[in-house]
């Protein structure tokens, strides 16, 4: 299949290269390309014009009087490029043919179902039944739903006090669902998990915010974060007024995480008077896609223990591993296997229903497993969770389902496995095809995606392109991403949104377009890139 | 019906008073009552013992090193009394008969479905179909679901890009659903509403947090809040490090909101150097239940305009009005009817699917309508919304449904109206019965619940009870609430969690126990109160 996709991509590239009217008709003519390549500055100025807001001069608040932490916060995954994409999409809708592509392809965000991935049937059956339990006893229901989904819905309803799926739950989430999740964690890790350690949240993001809120009192509190990092971390640290202490992943060794680098950055920050409170590790990596080796994880655990850091483990891609030589190990399993118990290390693991093979982003389900904190700290976390009452119950149910899928002998087991395997094996093929495509482009190098949902290629931009970006008052990688969007409809996120070694330029591209679209994506990327390089060659 | 309930309650009270073995058997014997009345101090000390956490002495964070704003935050609705309730519930479960009641009755929180209120059928049908759209075309579905729910599910799916109910949406919520909600607001108000002004959120709470985050930079930023207030406001202001500027509602005039009081408090705060940014108004009131008169709302709008304050209008109880002489008017409608347009007043209206007649707390749906802010401020709100990606899609769908229920001619219309009317008229009766019961108790006075879901009676406690509370190191109203819980299983929230005029004592009690339980609730409250007063009479 991989060969098929690559061959198909090559054919499309050849067609495009040989005909200026090929797919889509006006896509790659030199004039339209150069227009798009230079449109960045115009677009930027029009944005800043529309933001002047002079008519609101008597409004009680203005940009100078709001919380400066909000101003400082940036979130590139939904930043300026995405705003431009939405504008182009509206233009395509109101004026078809107005751009050299038929659709916007959102490769900026890990949002599988927005690109056509279908939900896992069993999960949706159970959610549907829990939403409308009065059909559970009806005979027609047997014909519409699998037997084990009906049974599971009954089980879940029995776990919910009063079977009230529309009631606020316990602030940490429904106890019975936490029991199920804890069992799932035990099966995964081979070590005990306590349902009272689980806080169910609307996706992983609110959980991260809760921990940042707890740990950060002022800008003298630092959080060690990987660079590149998922911008939730930089945004959350900014919103809570702390200091992001960067540690750099080593691109040359496949985005390796070196403890010597952690030590160096920790010491540098401490010398500046920063009180470093926690270490964020994203495994599998986002945007970098690397999967940590267990030996590496042990070093990280020891480092946190020795240095008195809370370990914040973003493990939302735990089911997204694509290479046979790597395997996911939770940090809790690693710590427990080293003999560290509850009181030896403070560890928070984040999990989400948005990722994995299920990709249920819109359901906003997730949890954090909080271990190694004293009861009085736990009480504070509980209080913060309580202020928002609880996470949504459908998300809670789904979190229990992903940690306790159908088992051998259940009616849905075979179809569930088939759906899961089809998605994961396809993602693995797509990752490989895109990685190879990037590596075949002039001046581009791309580490393999061992896991997660992204590639993070480095582009060595010609000096002339960097000067054009300067003239357009934008970062070179943002300039590249903007040109790519304007020419192809493909949305990627500039590396500057994640952080990168100074003077290097990257972008993050998801591996999520459906497999039959990958050849087209590869073709568009390849042709665009070549023309961009040709135009700006020094 | 009202007379029936009151009579039934009176009968139960009489039975209880005449027999020490009546309902439940061991409920009100003098020895068990006095044991519970004095158990507060013991419970408190056991809590503080278990919180010592000395085994975590080497943990990287402790109670002195976390964010002090988190420590300062309080959220009484899920505070100490609720923790005790959960403990008692577990004891009842593991050791039935261990307390003088069979169940815990949670009157601490506006959580209708937890007390047996059934969801609105049409809403759940649509949610169920949207969760599992592949059944939409199946013939069995016609037999299970109403025709208009199937039609509505198709409409909603068409509004969702790619029909992907499992995808992250636009950060403000799905555009088509915002269109529906905006139309619903227009029908409600008779003034235009813009879908781009709507931010869909996981219940109203995250929306309030977003605005507080925007408005508060430091403790010199003040937010005018009613006293008593819903503790989400005090908690959110504390978490964001601002200053709550109290204004007192006038209990004597039915919790009246006097603009002269607003002015006085504003001036006092300004004199202290507080930069007051916004005014919070909760209408219908929580915990106070009053519904503002339109003339009063006009004064409030003018006050905000004149003083340069953002008006934060908590309108989540807009469908909960129980008295014929009052009506809900949105602040936006009031402002527009005064001739104030988009640029004349900065107004945020909060709405939720958790309240109304639907009471879908667990779905975590809601929105804020943001008007009168410059584009550059709107961009900042959008950015903060983006950091959490989007609210859950089921909650978004439900928000569109509550603002666009079945219409005349739809198959579900009659049953929908019947369900709605049954819930609202029953709530009105329950409010009246409980209000009368409180007013018949010694030393208790209770304003009527014109709207919302609560009563907030004042209790004039004997000096001896206040001394007993002091001895138990707790506030007198918390002492009363704790004794009530221990003796009856009824959970209420002490007035100190909402704020009250110094030296007065209140508690908040929801009107949500199902109607057939109200006589029992009244009986328990009445007997407990009389015995409490007898024990502590000066």
Automatic annotation (TrEMBL), chains A, B:
**Keyword line:** Aminotransferase, Pyridoxal phosphate, Transferase
Ligase as UniProt keyword: no
Cite the InterPro entries for this sequence. ALAT1/2-like, Aminotransferase_I/II_large, PyrdxlP-dep_Trfase, PyrdxlP-dep_Trfase_major, PyrdxlP-dep_Trfase_small
Q: Name one GO molecular function term.
A: L-alanine:2-oxoglutarate aminotransferase activity
What biological process terms from GO does the record include?
Answer: L-alanine catabolic process
Q: Which cofactor does it need?
A: pyridoxal 5'-phosphate
Pfam families tied to this protein: Aminotran_1_2
Any keyword Transferase? Answer: yes
Q: Residue ranges of the Aminotransferase class I/classII large domain? A: 162-519
Pathway assigned to this chain's UniProt record: Photosynthesis; C4 acid pathway; Amino-acid degradation; L-alanine degradation via transaminase pathway; pyruvate from L-alanine: step 1/1
The record's EC number reads 2.6.1.2
| Subunit structure, as described in the record | Homodimer.
Q: Which family does it belong to?
A: Belongs to the class-I pyridoxal-phosphate-dependent aminotransferase family. Alanine aminotransferase subfamily.
Name of the featured protein: alanine transaminase
Species for this entry: Cuscuta campestris
